[in-house]
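Take the subject:
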Amino acid sequence: MGRHDRIRTGSVVFSGRFVFNRVNRPETAVVDADGFRPNVGIVLVDEHDQVLWARRVGGHDAWQFPQGGIQPRESPEDALFRELNEEVGLAPSQVEIIGRTRGWLRYRLPPRLRRHNSTPGFLGQKQQWFLLRMLAEDSAIRFDATDTPEFDHWQWVSYWYPVLEVVDFKREVYRRALRELMPQLIRIRRGTGT
């Protein structure tokens, strides 16, 4: 097995109680005039350029990158660090920002997945993506930073693996984000900076 095929995993036990994800959290983000909620996407890479891939709580075997909404009066960077802590338990000092996408990348949620009580006209997410280097040990990743974890398991996977495995309506956004972030990762690995 080559270094890009290697997978390390981690999971969390929740003291025997069933844990729901954050679907009951009040909607605090604003939907723009085009029907998209601002959001950040997080690509966390390890020393082998593998990315953190996390399984959502709920038993549907749904895996994705950490992501989350930008709250009113919150910058994308502030949302990035809040979501990073809420979803994978990492502090800003445990990562380094390598790069980010230049603009918003959008995806539409299928109608069956849109919340019935959400803002009228809500169509999906618009995301700014961040590429982060993990500075901490793998053991720093944890899902108990909030009472309602988003994820229950994680693994390191090859850089392009998520494009093939993510739910279909997010696939093109993942492809575009990873394609745009890849040169920034290469520059860091070559030691030429961002």
Summary: Residues 1-28 have pLDDT under 50 and may be disordered. The chain has three helices and nine strands.
